[in-house]
Amino acid sequence: MKSQVENGKLIILLPERIDASNSDAVNKELQDIISGVDFQGIVMDGEELDYISSAGLRVLLGIRKQIDKPYDVINISPKIYEIFDLTGFIDVFNVHRKPREISLEGLKIIGKGTLGTVYKLDDERVVKVYNAGAPVPYDRVEQEKKMARQVFVKGISTALSYEMVHANNAFGVVFELLSPVTVMDYMLEHPDEKDEMTVKVCELLKKIHSAELTGDNVPSMKNMMLASTAALAQIFSEDEMARFQKLLSEVPDRKTAIHGDYHPGNIMVDKNKELVLIDVGDMSTSHPFFEFYDMYPVFLLADELGAYASKYNDAMIRDFFHIGSDKEYEERKKFMQTYWDRLLHLYFEGHSDEEIATYDSYFRGIGRLKQFITILQLPDEDPQAKMLEIGRAKELFFEEFDKIPPVEEWWPKDL
């Protein structure tokens, strides 16, 4: 049996048959695989499984008892799913049917993101296909589908998710078709309604932060952020790493829902001018402080970059926001500055301008961590220029970061 570890999950491809004639051999091979690697969870892939008897089910049940927690059984055909259902094993494992195969031929691309491409299926549905070039694992795609449902039942407007599918050797999820207009584009086209829409954006954000997410697979944004900072060890000393990791680790833990990418390009405006949240697959739980870390519009800091970094940073920003001309770039930059300032005043309503300016400086200080990710991605065609960029960014970062007190000391008690 083939096996591999992805993101801590041990994925095992089950054989074509598991019955009385080979159950002992299958069990022994599974034991050898499990004992030979470190993992945080197991996924049994039934892509090739065509028959399983009671003896085969007992083998899978034995593994379940051995690791003492449910595991995923994925890519199960309808007839194998029926066996799991009839025997009650649906309640023992996390069983997932094999996604329906669809063709993307002739479908119009209506959006692209970091993880996938969105195609229009018909007048009511779209399909988000997760990077056919470097396919996203099944459980990661399944997580977005589950998260969309959990968020929806919490009363947060988001696109309905219908089913998982498979296309061009990659997994996808079929969602309802929403308005193609983002709140950013809407406000740029209707400047007289910008304040009204920013109020709605803040109301939606507060609604997200009033909810709690549950489930074993809901990650902690705090833990993810701490893990992501490990990459910065190549440019920070141990003492420097300890300084910002201490602040992050001491942020109080919460089960508060965090979107994790709450920018005006991830909020759509429907025909009734109501807002609908998209890209909920990476939602997590944590203190709202981490939401504002992620929300801080880093390209407002672009002017502080040197010429070497600016060249690549500008190209990345233009691609992300689908910006063409220099005029449009400056327009969106100005938009983001006024939008961000208004959003802070709405979220921290009742606090003085001086207090909100202080909060803004804290978010800018911690938000600079994202600037390092940009700099680290710069090509090495001019190592000396790259090191100068890193040195300048570090100086600016610690100048602001060292002024941030522990979050528990300044975060408003009512939020």
Attribute tags:
415 residues, alpha/beta, six-stranded mixed beta sheet, five-stranded mixed beta sheet, 45% helix, 16% strand, globular
What are the low-pLDDT stretches, counting only 5+ consecutive residues below 50? none
Strands, count: 17
Overall spatial form = globular
Strand ordering within the main sheet: 8-12-13-11-10-9
Radius of gyration: 24 Å
Treating each run of at least 4 consecutive H or I residues as one helix, how many helices?
14
Fraction of residues in helix: 40-55%
First and last CA, distance: 51 Å
Specify the structural class.
alpha/beta
Describe this structure in words.
This protein is of the alpha/beta class and 415 residues long. Helices cover 45% and strands 16% of the residues. The chain contains 14 helices and 17 strands. It has helices spanning 23-35, 54-67, 78-86, 138-153, 183-189, 194-209, 221-228, 238-249, 288-295, 307-320, 326-347, 353-376, 383-401, 407-410; strands spanning 3-6, 9-13, 17-18, 41-45, 51-52, 72-76, 94-97, 100-101, 108-112, 117-120, 125-129, 161-167, 170-176, 257-258, 267-269, 275-277, 284-285. The strands form five sheets. It has a six-stranded mixed β-sheet, covered by helices on one side. A hairpin with a 4-residue loop joins strand 9 (108-112) and strand 10 (117-120). Helix 1 packs parallel to helix 2 and helix 6 crosses helix 11 (326-347). It is globular, with a radius of gyration of 24 Å. The chain starts with a strand and ends in a 5-residue tail after the last helix. The mean pLDDT is 86.
